[in-house]
Write a structure and sequence with these properties.
By secondary structure, this protein is an alpha+beta fold. It is built from 32 helices and 17 strands. The strands form four sheets. The chain has a seven-stranded antiparallel sheet. The structure holds guanosine-5'-diphosphate (GDP) and magnesium ion.
């Protein structure tokens, strides 16, 4: 801890820490202690000198704590709040003058926007400000939108036409800043550097300008043509705040246009303005930059002349001692001189402002933003803030000390129960339809291989999985509601303490929840975690969250072998997955992935009413993906499985003997000893083997393998009935509830599918893929084994 300053506050109690402040208290930030990425993040989130913070509430388990700063809700752990020194809310800082000095201008030479034949506009903005909503609206894409940070983790490209010109629009991940501390910041920064967009469309949340415009000050320094879209204009209008857009445009020297992205109001104007700035950039133009005051401006000018190729943003970063920026001059001609000069400048500035460079620059940027806003924004005096905002009565309930966790559990139970019961109706219709088609083909086609292929292979295999489409849609519908309402981030807030216990981060909860849908986007979603070890632990445990591809197998088995409490049985499987993930996380974070501490700086987005449009788009795109998977990988796998179970042919055998002597049967017999202790027969063994490609194939394989027996009993047409009547060689039934549960446990835990492994490879590398394959399959075997043996003993 460094002990400078503090003597310049007219106040005695200088050593108050934010952590010690009671709920309801409003205080002023004096400074953030510590250093590195964490401190930088806090500064960017608005914890700068003089900013007012209100303590809103403790999480149900006491940690973390929700604060309000600059109109947004941020959660911090107690240990983190202890890093922030605060003072009375009306204390005066005598060293803080209003640092709004307006802008300075830089002349930028004209460029040919079509130098690489593509007109390109990049969307930049804070997380959750509506970039993807705009992107979808403009390009007609159906990218995922969600009311929390970190939904978009990659760039997405789309096209639109304006005035007869084709323009590429790029949706980038949201960032609070471009300091390259987190993977997203790095991504955006690199994207701009390598792809040179012709214009930047800077989306800001009009209801939260102070924090949002911080990023704008950085973009301004890059001297790329820019248009600022004031999104969520509808919310600003509703709040009653008045904003003088024209005046603000003039003060910041950038075009600003009100926008309501999700219904398209203002989109046309925004795009037209973007095209105008692109056209103007063909000629020499004046760019406006934040004026940092004489001393820093002189330094920028001087150093800028020493490295002519670099933009103002990078030059300032070099002065700030940013390693990524310094790399750009390292090894270049004159690079050493630049570094030396920058160090001297940094020392001079730090001495002059009596503070460290990061704080100085952040303070100045926020000073600029505040100064500008003071002139253009008239807040509605009756404006609802904090606890009086819409949704916050409900919030008090949702995050209540005693009720929060039960509510979370009930919501999840509702989700599974609804998936089960509501989905059963359309499922029956589809089942009947498929049965009818199969029968019809069976009657009209001549006997032979082709008929068997179509009826047993394709209809038996693909049809067996297709019937679960309604359930999958319902599950995604619920996930979409959770995401859109803003509850996702609250769930992370509620469980952070528990997650922390197992060595994880509350934010990991979001990938886990997404993992109930599909592991691939869930693994991608871990990119919002800043700590690499947290990310790895989360990536490796996400596959234990039971994805929707496994759902068909559970639904089939639960419906066939459990009569009471079907929703609870289903949920218990999911809970086992969670428990195994937790144990794995504890072990990993205590052994090979040990690390000191991670932070819980997370923004809690405002509650928003989920829109039907969003939920339907989400369901639709998931449904499409599911059908595509049916038509490709599952179709192919079903045919292969069918062929392996059909050949070689021998005359005069019953269908059952036929399957047993097939290639598939031989394979199954070979692995039978391995799966026998788990209560499985060889058909089940083969099913999990083929299911490694995609978990739905477990069901389609059973569909193919058990159709061979259908001739024995003409009545039983559905797979469920076939499983119920299947017998072992000794005449006992293959399945009972114990075998079914053991089988579900195995399907839950073993080998993530190929697509998930590919995602793990992308995010973590081959080494972890190998680990994951061995580990998950080992755990699956062990858990099923213990369950089966113990349950048999007790039964
Ligand atoms: P991104 O993270 O910047 O890509 O933001 P998203 O496009 O995912 O949107 C974040 C949330 O804001 C979603 O819940 C949207 O439905 C909502 N949203 C987006 N644009 C608007 C808008 O203009 N007005 C309002 N009220 N909500 C919006
Ligand atoms: Mg997005």
């Amino acid at each position: 801890m460094n002990s400078e300053q503090n003597n310049n506050i007219h106040n005695n109690d200088v050593n108050r820490l934010l952590d010690g402040e009671p709920v309801g208290m409003t205080v002023q930030v004096v400074r953030v202690m510590g250093d590195g990425a964490f401190r930088q993040r806090l500064l960017e989130m608005g914890f700068v000198r003089g900013a007012q913070v209100t303590v809103l509430k403790n999480a149900p388990l006491r940690d973390p704590v929700e604060y309000m700063i600059m109109g947004s809700h941020i959660s911090l752990r107690h240990s983190e709040a202890a890093q922030i020194e605060v003072t009375d809310k009306d204390a005066q800082f005598c060293d803080m003058e209003d640092s709004f000095n307006g802008t300075v201008e830089t002349t930028v030479a004209g460029v040919d926007p079509l130098n690489d034949n593509v007109l390109r506009i990049a969307l930049i903005g804070n997380p959750n400000c509506g970039k993807t909503s705009l992107f979808n609206y403009v390009t007609g894409a159906k990218e995922k939108v969600g009311n929390y940070g970190g939904v978009t983790v990659d760039s997405k490209e789309g096209w639109f036409t304006i005035g007869g010109r084709r323009v590429q629009l790029v949706d980038l991940p949201g960032t609070y800043s471009l300091t390259e501390y987190s993977p997203e910041e790095m991504y955006v920064r690199t994207y701009i550097r390598d792809n040179h967009p012709d214009a930047i469309l800077n989306i800001v949340d009009a209801g939260n300008l102070e924090r949002n415009l911080y990023l704008t000050t950085q973009v301004m320094d890059m001297n790329i043509p820019m248009v600022i879209a004031l999104n969520m204009w509808d919310e600003l209008e509703k709040s009653g705040d008045k904003l003088d857009v024209e005046m603000m445009s003039r003060l910041l020297g950038a075009r600003m246009i009100p926008l309501t992205a999700y219904n398209g109001r203002g989109v046309k104007e925004v795009l037209e303005a973007a095209m105008e700035v692109i056209d103007e950039s063909e000629k020499e133009t004046l760019h406006h930059n934040v004026n940092y005051g004489n001393l820093i401006e002189d330094c920028l000018k001087e150093l800028g002349q020493m490295c002519p190729g670099l933009d103002r943003y990078t030059v300032l970063k070099i002065i700030e001692n940013d390693q990524h920026a310094i790399q750009l001059v390292d090894g270049q001609e004159g690079g050493e001189q630049v570094k030396k000069a920058a160090t001297e400048m940094r020392k001079r500035i730090e001495r002059d402002y009596n503070n460290d460079i990061t704080s100085i620059i952040t303070d100045l940027k926020y000073g600029f933003v505040r100064g500008a806003l003071a002139e253009v924004l008239t807040p509605n005096p009756e404006r609802a803030t904090g606890e009086t905002k819409p949704g916050y009565t409900l919030d008090r309930l949702l995050t209540n000390r005693w009720l929060a966790l039960p509510i979370l559990l009930v919501l999840m139970w509702l989700m599974f129960e609804a998936t089960f019961t509501l989905g059963a109706y359309p499922q029956e219709w589809i089942e009947n339809g498929i049965g009818w088609i199969g029968e019809w083909i069976g009657q009209t086609m001549p006997e032979g291989i082709l008929r068997d292929l179509i009826v047993d292979g394709i209809i038996g295999g693909v049809g067996g999985v297709l019937v679960f489409l309604p359930q999958i849609l319902i599950l995604f519908f619920f996930i979409s509601l959770l995401e859109d309402s803003g509850y996702m981030a609250r769930a992370a807030f509620i469980v952070d303490r528990i997650m922390h216990r197992v060595g994880l981060h509350g934010k990991s909860f979001i990938p886990y929840l997404i993992g109930f849908g599909c592991g691939v986007p869930a693994i991608m979603a871990t990119r919002t975690l800043e700590n690499r070890r947290d990310r790895l632990v989360t990536i490796l445990t996400v596959p234990f969250m039971s994805c929707s591809a496994r759902l068909p197998a559970y639904l089939l088995l639960v419906a066939a072998f459990f009569t009471a409490n079907q929703g609870l049985i289903l949920m218990s499987i999911y809970l086992v997955g969670i428990v195994v993930a937790a144990i794995t996380a504890i072990v990993l974070s205590k052994t090979i992935l040990k690390h000191d501490k991670s932070q819980f700086v997370m923004e809690l987005p405002p509650y928003r009413q989920p829109t039907a449009r969003n939920a339907v788009i989400h369901m639709w795109s998931k449904g499409k993906q599911y059908l595509q998977k049916m038509a490709t990988i599952i179709l192919a796998a079903s045919i292969i499985v069918w062929a392996l179970g059909y050949f070689p042919r021998h005359d005069g055998q019953t269908p059952q003997e036929q399957v047993e002597n097939s290639y598939m049967g031989q394979m199954g017999k070979a692995i039978e000893p391995l799966v026998e202790p788990l209560g499985f027969n060889w058909q089940m063994g083969v099913s999990v083997l083929t299911g490694a490609a995609a978990k739905e194939i477990v069901v389609s394989t059973m569909g193919v393998l058990y159709t061979g027996e259908s001739d024995l009993d003409e009545e039983s047409t559905s797979l469920k009935e076939k499983l119920q009547s299947a017998t072992r060689p000794d005449g006992k039934p293959v399945f009972d509830s114990i075998v079914a549960y053991s089988f579900m446990l195995f399907i839950l835990l073993y080998f993530p599918c190929i697509a998930a492994l590919a995602a793990i490879k992308r995010e973590a590398g081959w080494k972890w893929v190998a680990f994951e394959v061995v580990y998950t399959t080992g755990v699956a075997w062990l858990v099923s084994f213990l369950f089966y043996q113990i349950a048999r003993m007790l039964a």
